[in-house]
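User: Can you recover a sequence for this backbone? Please restate the input before giving your answer.

Assistant: Of course. Working from this structure:
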């Protein structure tokens, strides 16, 4: 698969100006490759999107381990353009292993872009119901993007024998258990676990698991759910659905004062359709909007 650079053509312009600074984002902001067989090579891809009005230099892309290979070459990404980057990840040889990889994209005059990648190999770890969390999941509800939130869950041994929890494995580096230590729970005993969660910088619904491992290779998971949101996001989605009565989904939301920019995808989500921008009035209504259409490379 080769890199595809997609220039953007202005489809509709209103009074609003585009974002003032050149800013590259990665979409999706993380890759969860789920559960795979050991040694499997998983092929996926992400998009680097220049949301700004100036070209930017993409300097490098590197995985945190040799198991990750990216089809990437240094290049200049034009204003309002998107670059597809194929990613290949090799799963560990061992059963029941979690692999967390970070891909770092280096962009001139911008902070490096971090892309977390996660997968789990099939294995002999058995899910247990002897230990359960109260509540069963940590639901943070609506949260503000880019903040750190504290939460907790109580882990209860519901069996009639002792169990020892030997480790905790958050699904991403965005979650930390600063006080966790291996602990033995007698029958009926409970322990409170404190979690610090860094909310995503982009808007949308996310779910992350914390997997606890027991002595004897049993596991149980506690989901952590949240929705980073802004009421104006729903207004943006309705606004463009009225303008273009087709099936589109939106992600990659970025907020800059009264301006919200997002990536619009066609129904099959094979490629981004457009960058959409809304400028809002103080009462949350749309003042102006424009769309930067992503043209197919074959049609240029």
């Amino acid at each position: 698969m080769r890199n595809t650079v997609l220039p953007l053509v202005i489809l509709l312009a209103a009074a609003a100006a585009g974002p003032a600074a050149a800013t590259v984002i990665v979409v999706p902001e993380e890759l969860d490759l789920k559960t795979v067989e050991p040694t499997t090579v998983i092929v996926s891809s992400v998009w680097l999107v220049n949301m700004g009005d100036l070209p930017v230099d993409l300097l490098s892309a590197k995985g945190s381990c040799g198991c990750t290979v990216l089809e990437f070459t240094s290049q200049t990404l034009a204003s309002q353009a998107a670059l597809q980057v194929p990613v290949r990840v090799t799963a560990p040889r061992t059963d029941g292993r979690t692999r967390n990889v970070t891909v770092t994209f280096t962009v001139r005059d911008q902070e490096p872009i971090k892309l977390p990648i996660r997968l789990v190999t099939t294995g002999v770890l058995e899910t247990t119901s002897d230990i359960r969390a109260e509540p069963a999941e940590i639901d943070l509800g609506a949260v503000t993007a880019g903040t750190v939130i504290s939460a907790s869950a109580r882990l209860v041994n519901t069996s009639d024998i002792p169990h020892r929890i030997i480790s905790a494995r958050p699904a991403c580096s965005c979650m930390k258990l600063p006080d966790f230590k291996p602990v033995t729970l007698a029958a009926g005993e409970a322990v409170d676990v404190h979690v610090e969660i860094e909310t995503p910088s982009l808007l949308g619904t996310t779910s992350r698991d914390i997997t606890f491992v027991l002595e004897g290779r049993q596991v149980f998971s506690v989901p952590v759910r949240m929705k980073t949101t802004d009421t104006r996001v729903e207004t943006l989605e309705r606004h463009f659905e009225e303008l273009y009565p087709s099936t589109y989904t939106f992600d990659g939301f970025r907020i800059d004062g009264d301006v919200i920019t997002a990536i619009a995808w066609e129904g099959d989500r094979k490629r981004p359709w457009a960058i959409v921008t809304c400028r809002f009035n103080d009462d949350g209504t749309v003042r102006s909007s424009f769309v930067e259409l992503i043209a197919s490379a074959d049609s240029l």
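That completes the design. The helical segments are 231-243.
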